[in-house]
Design a protein that fits this description.
The protein has 2 domains: 220 residues, Cytochrome Bc1 Complex, Chain A, domain 1; 187 residues, Cytochrome Bc1 Complex, Chain A, domain 1. The protein has 16 helices and 11 strands. The chain is α+β, with helices and mostly antiparallel strands. The strands form 2 sheets. It has a 6-stranded mixed β-sheet with strand order 1-2-6-3-5-4, with helices on both faces. It has a 5-stranded mixed β-sheet with strand order 7-11-8-10-9, with helices on both faces. It is globular and about 60 Å long.
Length: 477
């Protein structure tokens, strides 16, 4: 089977590592490697800014982890792409060959060392995730620089990935709830680029080329980004090596990043949209409106409110009333911060129900939302929310990869997310009155936009004409 790097590559079973490695100075000295240690969770990571502050680096030693997690993200992402799907294809192309090595050489060498390499993109960034044993930390950083600074963007690999992405779209188009969700995203975000599917559309993908990916990547390099390194490493040595690898690349010469600030997400004028789906019997319903972005001070209160409404399961107001008590829906979902980042997140309520029960279910959704803005939650409910949030806290730093995600969040959004005290303080400060006031500021049942996917339709993707399904085959998958 041909090795591919669009997903993590596992280590070869039974392979033994050589005693010597390229890590060298990266290994912390005078420390037992296999003894678990308490991690000083509020210790500041070592930091360094390059490229006149456009490339921000952070390294954090986590002694108990005998691995290294490296994350490198360049600013831009889907929110700045001129054509839907370009950001994702650019991220995936980063592991498909460089000026020094072919895609096959990269895959085989990564597999031989047990290194995982993944190129991807989100709404705001594209880049790389590299995971390796701590002994291979230097190698991981060297490969990161090679993949990020000298990707080849070979036309044949681009065509392969483009065909693969079209296949993903065709597969997703078989899922009625996804098609309805795309239409809901379009209803909310239009004319913002995030109104389009993260994978793009068949038409937009057909108009792209490997050269488009190259230009988008160069723009992102000019814009800058962040690199986070976490694991059993020496922080100073990590930053010194990154400075040697990336410092010279900061001289852009005549090239400057193309400024693409997206239009505001105003949404479609219609408050309700109905789309046909391939479902035989079920209707799929989304309802919601925008709330706040990633850095808004009300974020903790809205997370608690989401739990009260049902983001954590059947105990919330919406699933308990609609599914458990009334029996109107076979599936429910609630999120008050869906997609929150630089752009605002959204209240998003999902219902899987029978077409005859759509109106009554929506009535109960609005009733539940009115309740949280008309009366404060009781103290016991908030305490239960806090208990659950405190209970999940240890999982935030369960792996080196999760530590790296916290560092990336801090570098991108300016929040001290890596500090345990910061995360615990945001949970501990929650009060019934604070949650109630946040609900009144950000929840409005009268502003709900509703998208209903009804059975009996057929996606134009399925019919083979390559166009989007009627009603808006839109949104972030």
């Amino acid at each position: 089977m041909r090795p591919r790097l669009t997903s993590p590559v596992p280590a070869r079973p039974g392979c033994r590592r050589k005693p010597a490695s390229l890590a060298g100075l990266f290994r912390p000295r005078g420390r037992l490697r296999f003894v678990a240690r308490a991690v000083p969770t509020d210790r500041e990571p070592s930091r360094l800014d390059l490229w006149s502050g456009r490339l921000r680096l952070a390294a954090l030693q986590v002694p108990a982890a005998d691995v290294v997690a490296v994350r490198a993200w360049l600013r831009g992402g889907a929110r700045t792409e001129p054509s839907p799907g370009l950001g994702l294809l650019t991220g995936r192309m980063l592991v498909e060959g460089t000026e020094q090595r072919t895609w096959r050489e990269i895959a085989e060498q990564a597999e031989a060392r047990g290194v995982s390499i993944d190129g991807s993109a989100t709404a705001e960034v594209h880049g790389l995730a590299v995971d390796a044993l701590a002994d291979d930390a230097a190698l991981a950083l060297d490969w990161l620089a090679e993949l990020l600074l000298s990707p080849e963007f070979a036309p044949d690999r681009f065509e392969f990935l483009r065909d693969q992405t079209v296949g993903e779209l065709l597969s997703l188009a078989d899922r009625p709830e996804v098609v309805t969700g795309w239409a809901f995203r379009d209803q909310l975000y239009h004319p913002h680029p995030l109104a389009a599917p993260g994978q793009g559309t068949p038409e937009s993908l057909d108009g792209l080329s490997a050269e488009d990916c190259r230009r988008f990547h160069l723009d992102a390099l000019a814009r800058g980004g962040v690199i986070a390194v976490v694991g059993a490493v020496d922080e100073r040595e990590v930053l010194a090596r990154l400075e040697r690898l990336f410092g010279p690349a900061g001289d852009l010469g005549p090239r400057r990043a193309a400024r693409r600030e997206p239009p505001a997400p105003r949404g479609r004028p219609e408050r309700r949209v109905e789309v046909g789906t391939a479902s035989r019997e079920q209707a799929h319903v989304y309802a919601g409106h925008f709330t706040v972005n990633r850095t808004h001070p009300d974020l903790p209160e809205l997370r608690a409110l989401g739990i009260l409404l049902g983001s954590d399961g059947l105990a919330g107001l919406i699933p308990n009333r609609i599914r458990e008590r009334e029996g109107l829906a076979y599936a429910t979902g609630v999120d008050l911060l869906a997609g929150a980042g630089t752009d605002p997140g959204a209240l998003s309520v999902y219902l899987g129900t029978h077409p005859d029960r759509v109106e009554r279910s929506l009535e109960l959704v609005r009733e539940s939302l009115r309740r949280v803005i008309e009366e404060p939650p009781d103290a016991e409910a908030i305490e239960e929310c806090q208990t659950g949030m405190f209970g999940r806290e240890p999982f935030a730093t369960e792996t080196a990869g999760r530590w790296a995600a916290l560092l990336v969040d801090s570098l991108l959004h300016g929040l001290p997310s890596y500090r345990r005290s910061f995360r615990l303080e945001r949970i501990g400060r929650l009060t019934p009155q604070g949650v109630f006031e946040a609900a009144r500021r950000h929840i409005d049942p009268e502003r709900l936009r509703v998208t209903v996917g009804l059975p009996g339709g057929r996606s134009r993707l399925e019919s083979g004409d390559g166009a989007l399904p009627s009603g808006g085959f839109q949104g972030q998958g």
